[in-house]
Design brief:
CATH superfamily: Flagellar protein flit
Strand content: under 5%
Number of helices: 3
CATH architecture: Up-down Bundle
Oligomer: single chain
Number of domains: 1
CATH class: Mainly Alpha
Largest sheet: none
CATH topology: Methane Monooxygenase Hydroxylase, Chain G, domain 1
Number of strands: 0
Order of helices and strands: HHH
Radius of gyration: 18 Å
Distance between the termini: 23 Å
């Protein structure tokens, strides 16, 4: 059962990386966004077994990124990408709810099937 969820965001927010942001920091956060998009794709595909380990890995990436205090010059850019991650999370939650409703309907139909 595959669910297609429209992505409200396309690409990184904020129109690119502002000056004053270290390339490694930029790469770390952009990889978290890309990982989050991959998670959404796996949710849409119903690959539930993979989602738990993917979330664990994403949490490790976030912990690593935020183990260094952001510079003031990074604040707006980081906030924009966090908003994108939050939107991806909302899309994943929507997909999970839809899948749960579909499963509930299927189970309900099976429990009423006289066979």
């Amino acid at each position: 059962m595959t669910l297609m969820v429209s992505r409200k965001s396309s690409g990184s927010s904020g129109g690119g990386t502002p000056s004053g942001i270290d390339d490694s920091r930029r790469g770390e956060l952009e990889s978290i966004v890309a990982w989050s998009r991959s998670m959404l794709t796996r949710v849409e595909e119903g690959a539930w077994d993979e989602i738990v380990s993917m979330e664990t890995h994403r949490q490790e990436l976030l912990n690593t990124f935020f183990s260094v205090e952001p510079k003031k010059t990074e604040a707006k850019w980081i906030a924009d990408l966090i908003q994108e991650i939050m939107q991806i999370n909302a899309d994943m939650e929507d997909a999970c709810r839809k899948q749960l409703q579909q499963l509930s309907s299927t189970i309900g139909a099976l429990s009423h099937d006289p066979e």
